[in-house]
Amino acid sequence: MGEVDPAFIQDPEHRPRISFTEAKGIPLIDLSPIAKTLHPSSDEVSAVVREIGNACEEWGFFQVINHGVPLEMRQRIEDVSRKFFAQSLEEKRKVRRNEKEVYGYYDSEHTKNVRDWKEVFDFTIEEPTIIPASHEPDDKEVTEWTNQWPDYPLELREACQEYAQEMVKLAYKLMELVALSLGLPGDKFHGFFKDQTSFMRLNHYPPCPSPHLALGVGRHKDVGALTILAQDDVGGLEVKRKTDGEWIRVNPTADAYIINVGDIIQVWSNDKYESVDHRVVVNSKRERFSIPFFFYPAHYTMVKPLEELTNDQMPAKYRAYSWGKFVTTRKQSNFRKLNVENLQIYHFRIPE
User: What is the pTM of this model?
Assistant: First the structure.
């Protein structure tokens, strides 16, 4: 997967530590009480809402079981993912992403971020996805992002599309719980995702000969609303604990999904819920597979603290920003150097 950047090896902030704390603290939440009803007056549902709120506030991460996603559907997409990545590099690069085709295959040898020891296949949920044509503030033009699908495995496209719809349903369910935990109506966030820009990624982390010198994914925060992650039994995800800054390993739980709050929810909640740092460590002997779903709103969404959660005593902590321009800037910066810094939500923070 390419040589590790020597500067990276010498960077203690990004280099993985040899020891870590096992993730006994990351909440595991049973969603079975909401299978039939999401009425907040139900004691069982109220308990789930409290668990979600506590997890979002204290960790920014949690796992869910009894989530309603058919196991056979998850198994199918995991199987086709393994088949796709087992192909030769030449075959996979036939659907390699580029500035025009922003979704598809890429590996760490052909990205600026040589620190990431992995290869991926990305696809958008809404096809086409409507997005601003450029990052320039005054440019009102929009463009369409579409998927590239490989010839093999034949069933990959269907498996991905079917599974994606299950992720969308679960994401809406989780957003309802998040809304209720903030004291908002359950459907408060639904309108933001009417023309969603969400996408999904198939991840493959090959065995790394020097796992103490590299990361599968470096330390980062997710820019969207929610991320829903399926990981195999190899594991490797680590979360930076808010209380003391220690890296906590998220051990695999059979059939569970790992959920984390993204930057958009941090802004919407006016910092009540925080997007937290996480990373992926690699394994010297075993390959690892994972499938994250990134829940993104419509491109025309102006992301800002919700009026219901701000007042004179708790004023808005962020200026509004255009999600479409934000995500376009991020995508375009993957392929060429732009005349703007790679955006982060702290660029929109209002000084106290």
Answer: 0.90
